[in-house]
Design a protein that fits this description.
The structure holds 2 protein chains of 2 kinds. Chain A is of the alpha/beta class. In chain A, 29% of the residues lie in helices and 30% in strands. Chain A contains 9 helices and 15 strands. Chain A has a 7-stranded mixed β-sheet with strand order 6-7-8-3-9-10-15, sandwiched between helices. A 4-stranded antiparallel β-sheet of chain A has the order 2-1-4-5, with helices on one face. Chain A has a 4-stranded antiparallel β-sheet with strand order 12-13-11-14, with helices on one face. In chain A, α5 runs parallel beside α6. Chain A is elongated. The two termini of chain A are 28 Å apart. A 4-stranded antiparallel β-sheet of chain B has the order 1-4-2-3. In chain B, α1 packs parallel to α4 and α5 packs antiparallel against α6. Chain B is flat. The two termini of chain B are 24 Å apart. The chains are: A alpha/beta, B alpha+beta. Chains A and B meet through α2, β6, α3 and α5 of A and α1, α3 and α9 of B.
């Protein structure tokens, strides 16, 4: 589906009023966002925010309590979408009694669009023989095998839950490179959750922030960053912030630093700069009361919310 | 396995050198995961297929050499009154008879063993280790995957137990009912020498899979399965005599021939009242019982064997099918 010029208009993921309730309560509530096709999207949020729940629902492994999902324009569970969406779960489950070769064979047997060369390429850099038992591999090596299975599937949508958490920096760099090359080559939509914010800034051009089971922010990274200003100034200028959306303000002595979403020209004597992704995320994570921000192409039309 | 044909995609050409007979798709995964079970069952079948003919030959020649065909230990049959016949039967029971009984009791354990060791972990292990997520992340739906798993172990276990059952039945025949004292209704034969064995195996697997799907952890699932299966076996043994119409005969149970199954006895009073044996007549009033009533026994004749087998097998299969249906629905709903 790569290279037809329509990618930006089509949706990779659309989530309508999604909710998932466990016995202990709602893990996810009223989640709606849109991820255009062909984007590399970071799903971020504090621990327990509902990231894994959201990704499991998208992967078809968890049945939502309410709301609906469309992947690649197809309703969740559609027979065709099952073959076009790949998922790597956070715990990277693999059959420990299988050899690496047998696990790749599993991918080949169960996926009609299997790309053997791609899977072999991902595994090849791992420094373990194909005859090695999965049970004898380290966590990072298992992650590599999991990614090989996911990429070998030739997915149009790749969902990764904490894919890089147990990789050493070198492997992380190499696998990220493979992932990005694949995405660029095939126009794959990628949605991955991660805690490693610095990594995300390099590779992701789209962002979904989840906190307390709700979407706090979603959209193109540049657009979101551009909608925020990091202001540093004197405490006496604080009244000038009224009329703008204040995400977070912190006082050090008489110096006030604030992250705001300007709703018009800023008045007062401020040192103003665009925040980094890390600054933006940290500020939002510390301030859950900040109003939700979804850029235009991250919003879904409410037609399907009732479904 | 026909269910895998739609998975064979047009673009995924079958690599050269791989036989058409080899399993593909889900069939390959099922074979890879359950080949140990298949090999073990095959080994058991081979051991029986090789060992049983020798044992049967030895039993047959013993019986013909001592002219005790059709003779029980205690009998009024004139053909069995020859010199030394009774000792020969006793001797047979103490040697071959014990082996036969041992094999029969082992086979009787087969459903429980398969239910606990194969059925219970089938889904519980995947759910406990999370590997179900790996499989469902491939181009496979939950329904097809669960169905393939059930089909694979059901097929292996049904085939294996069917062959073992047939071989055991063949081994039992020369000394059936009388010489060995192992009758068609005996504990060592009734549930291990007929189709009931296969049906019980399938029921035990279904129980194990269901408990495993509900409990989602291997060891508790095995324990739960064992408990349920013991209860099921006890219940089935309890209702077994009443699954087909029986006859009441005015005869003492101890006088029944070996191929007639006495299931209850007591005294029939002149007014038609039935007094159970242990109730009144087992107490102090023995003389009174004997004087006023006649001994009766409820019996199944050998002709009731097939109806009893088929009814009980049917019950097991219906229960198994209901559990399988429930488990497939439950897991598909839970696993998305």
């Amino acid at each position: 589906m790569g290279g037809d010029g329509m990618i930006e208009l089509r949706a990779g993921v659309e989530v309508f009023g999604l909710g998932k309730r466990y016995r202990r309560g709602w893990a996810l509530r009223n989640c709606s966002f849109r991820l255009p096709a062909g984007r590399i999207c970071a799903l971020v949020g504090p621990n327990g925010a509902g990231k894994s729940t959201l990704l499991s629902v998208l992967a078809g492994l968890l049945v939502p309590t309410e709301g609906s999902v469309e992947l690649l324009g197809m309703p969740l569970g559609d027979r065709e979408s099952v073959g076009r969406v790949a998922f790597v779960a956070q715990d990277k489950p693999l059959y420990t009694g299988f050899t690496v070769a047998e696990l790749l064979r599993l991918g080949e047997e169960l996926n009609p669009r299997w790309d053997r060369d791609k899977a072999e390429l991902v595994v090849a850099g791992g420094g373990f023989p194909r005859s090695a038992r999965i049970g004898s591999l380290s966590g990072g090596q298992r992650t590599r095998v999991s990614l090989a299975l996911a990429l070998g599937k030739r997915p149009d949508l790749l969902i990764l839950d904490e894919p890089m958490s147990d990789l050493d920096p070198l492997a992380r760099h190499q696998l990220m490179g493979l992932l990005m090359a694949e995405a660029a080559e095939r126009g794959t939509t990628v949605l991955m959750s991660s805690h490693v914010v610095s990594e995300l800034q390099e590779v992701c051009d789209y962002l979904v922030l989840v906190a307390d089971g709700a979407v706090r922010m979603a959209g193109d990274v540049e657009e979101i960053l551009g909608a925020h200003r990091l202001l540093v100034g004197d405490q006496r200028d604080e009244p000038h912030l009224a009329g703008h959306q204040l995400v977070e303000s912190r006082l050090a002595g008489r110096t006030l630093s604030a992250l705001v979403r300007p709703l018009g020209p800023l008045r007062g004597d401020w040192q103003s700069s665009t925040p980094t992704l890390e600054e933006l995320l940290l500020a939002h994570l510390r301030s859950p009361q900040a109003p939700a921000l979804l850029t235009v192409d991250a919003r879904v039309t409410p037609r399907a919310v009732a479904a | 396995m026909t269910t895998t044909t739609t998975l064979a995609a047009p673009e995924a050409a079958v690599p050269a050198g791989r036989s058409r007979l080899r399993p593909h798709g889900l069939g390959w995964l099922m074979w890879r995961q359950h080949r140990l079970l298949a090999w073990l069952l095959l080994a058991a079948v081979l051991a029986a297929a090789i060992g049983f003919p020798f044992l049967r030959g030895a039993m047959s020649s013993y019986i013909s050499a001592h002219h005790i065909a059709g003779c029980a230990e205690i009998t009024s049959d004139p053909n069995c009154q020859q010199q030394g016949g009774q000792q020969a039967v006793e001797q047979f029971r103490a040697t071959y008879g014990l082996e036969l009984k041992g094999i029969g009791l082992l086979l009787r354990l087969l459903p429980t063993v398969l239910g606990v060791l194969v059925g219970a972990p089938l889904l519980a292990r995947e759910l406990e280790t999370g590997t179900w997520k790996l499989v469902l992340a491939q181009s496979v739906t939950a329904r097809r995957w669960v169905a393939a798993k059930l089909l694979a172990v059901g097929l292996f276990c049904a085939l294996g137990s069917a062959v073992l059952m047939a071989l055991f039945r063949w081994l039992w025949e020369p000394s059936a009912n009388d010489v060995s004292g192992i009758s068609w209704y005996s504990t060592a034969f009734v549930a291990s020498g007929g189709p009931l064995l296969v049906a019980t195996v399938l029921l035990a697997l279904a129980v194990g899979v269901t408990v495993g799907a509900l409990v989602r952890r291997v060891v508790p699932a095995m324990g739960g399965t064992l408990a349920v299966l013991v209860a099921v076996q006890v219940a089935l043994s309890g209702v077994r005599p009443y699954l087909w119409g029986w006859h009441t005969e005015l005869i003492s149970m101890s006088e029944l021939p070996n191929d007639t199954w006495g299931i209850a006895q007591g005294y029939l009073l002149p007014d038609g009242t039935r007094l159970p044996y242990g109730d009144v007549c087992g107490g102090n009033d023995v003389a009174g019982c004997g004087a006023s009533g006649r001994e009766f026994t409820d019996v199944h004749h050998a002709a009731d064997y097939w109806p009893l087998q088929l009814v009980e097998s049917g019950i097991c299969l219906v229960l198994a099918a209901a559990l399988v249906l429930f488990t497939v629905r439950w897991t598909v709903r839970r696993l998305g």
